[in-house]
């Protein structure tokens, strides 16, 4: 692997872990499990630590980001940590005015709407030195994690561009899709810039010690397959290309992307993350016999009675057997109101169930 010799994938710390083996297409004895948004408001220890600190400030405080990253690993015994950060951090570090408004999400001070706006944005650069707080958070974290791999992540260009153009969360991303369809040249310039800075963010995490990377395309589900293929996937491929030479496994996840799974694979992912709407065995049939899958317990089940949760977990594990390898996860993030003991129970159940023969 083209990472420093002291990197956990190279010095033997994480290369044999269940997560990395599954991401490489093997079937470890136990199905690895982690949860998207496992760090965060479902944990009382997180709420205590974050009190009075704005979200993005907490991401840029290496000691705090590292501690928050480690909390769910200690509590649940998950098979991976995911760096506590946010997809908009590279925007902030490049100089874009962005805040996370609690209960709402990222809000952009001056939305990017015109060719002039995009040209001004494209002047902004993200130097690796600006990512030092992120790299430091990674280093502090892997020192504590030992053989548990840390996953680094970044937002996919479409999801970030949707925030930049809309100025905040939106339902149908109409303004972003209007630019995409009406002014493809401006759109392409926006996507190229976004791919570069989000890829740089992921690269800094991997070089500092993350053992895998995940690209989150939370809003790609608002695109048709044709528009995704023409106007979003090339930039996702460009973002993945920024880190491909490092040799760490790369996961591509989206929400509402049941129609896009093959295109997401073709953008250059090793592993495809599947949301709760698509059965894992159907996803795997479409992705082919060499692509590991990750997912996809419906987050809504986390509030259900224990017997219903158990049935859901077993169903996901059974369908996951159709794939060459499976990493258990939710279909999207942990809701803030989730009882953390429910998550611990799911980790125990997945580990108890083992990897039955195919
Ligand atoms: O998964 C993890 O535990 C790692 C950390 C992580 C966060 N955000 C922390 C966070 C990751 C991987 C993300 C990615 C992210 N951020 C995505 C893609 C994944 C997805 O969920 O679809 C998106 C779309 C964002 C943008 C964003 N940041 C939103 C929509 C929100 C929620 C706003 C709210 O208050 O509901 C955030 C804030 C955020 N990012 C929180 C956390 C733990 C909540 C902050 C808080 O405690 O108030």
From TrEMBL:
Its main location: cytoplasm. The keyword Chaperone does not apply. Pathway: Porphyrin-containing compound metabolism; protoporphyrin-IX biosynthesis; coproporphyrinogen-III from 5-aminolevulinate: step 4/4. It comes from the Bacteria. One of its GO terms (molecular function) is uroporphyrinogen decarboxylase activity. Residues 32-41, 151-167 form the Uroporphyrinogen decarboxylase (URO-D) domain. InterPro entries: UROD/MetE-like_sf, Uroporphyrinogen_deCO2ase_HemE, Uroporphyrinogen_deCOase. It is an enzyme of class 4 (lyase). Substrate binds at residues 37-41, 86, 163, 218, 332. The record marks 86 as: Transition state stabilizer. Residues 1-15 are annotated as: Disordered. The keyword Cytoplasm applies. GO terms for biological process: protoporphyrinogen IX biosynthetic process. It catalyses: uroporphyrinogen III + 4 H(+) = coproporphyrinogen III + 4 CO2. Catalyzes the decarboxylation of four acetate groups of uroporphyrinogen-III to yield coproporphyrinogen-III. Homodimer. Belongs to the uroporphyrinogen decarboxylase family. This is Uroporphyrinogen decarboxylase. The lineage of its organism: Bacteria, Bacillati, Actinomycetota, Actinomycetes, Micrococcales.
């Amino acid at each position: 692997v083209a990472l420093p010799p002291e990197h956990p994938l190279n010095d033997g710390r994480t290369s044999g872990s269940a997560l990395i083996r599954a991401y490489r297409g093997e079937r470890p004895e136990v199905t690895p499990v982690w949860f998207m948004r496992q760090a965060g408001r479902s944990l009382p220890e997180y709420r205590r630590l974050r009190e009075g600190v704005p979200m993005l400030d907490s991401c840029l405080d290496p000691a705090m980001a590292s501690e928050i990253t480690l909390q769910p690993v200690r509590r649940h015994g998950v098979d991976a940590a995911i760096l506590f950060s946010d997809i908009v951090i590279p925007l902030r570090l490049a100089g874009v005015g962005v805040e996370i408004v609690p209960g709402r999400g990222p809000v952009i001070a001056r939305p990017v709407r015109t060719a002039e706006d995009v040209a001004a944005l494209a002047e902004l650069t993200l130097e690796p030195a600006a990512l030092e707080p992120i790299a430091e958070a990674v280093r502090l974290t892997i020192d504590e994690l030992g053989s548990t791999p840390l996953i680094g992540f970044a937002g996919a260009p479409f999801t970030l561009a949707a925030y930049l153009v809309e100025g905040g969360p939106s339902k149908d991303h109409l303004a972003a899709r209007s630019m995409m369809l009406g002014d493809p040249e401006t759109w392409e310039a926006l996507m190229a810039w976004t791919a570069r800075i989000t890829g740089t963010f992921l690269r800094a995490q991997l070089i500092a010690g993350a053992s895998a990377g995940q690209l989150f395309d939370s809003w790609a589900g608002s695109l048709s397959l044709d528009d995704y293929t023409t106007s979003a996937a090339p930039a996702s491929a460009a973002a993945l290309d920024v880190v491909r030479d490092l040799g760490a496994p790369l996961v591509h996840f989206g929400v509402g992307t049941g129609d896009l799974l093959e295109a997401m694979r073709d953008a250059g992912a090793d592993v495809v993350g599947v949301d709760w709407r698509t059965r894992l065995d159907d996803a795997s049939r479409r992705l082919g016999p060499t692509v590991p899958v990750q997912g996809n317990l419906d987050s809504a089940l986390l509030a259900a009675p224990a017997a219903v949760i158990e049935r859901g977990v077993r169903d996901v594990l059974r369908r996951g057997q159709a794939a060459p390898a499976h990493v258990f996860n939710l279909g999207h993030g942990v809701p803030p109101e989730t009882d953390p003991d429910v998550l611990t129970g799911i980790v125990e159940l997945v580990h108890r169930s083992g990897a039955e023969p195919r």
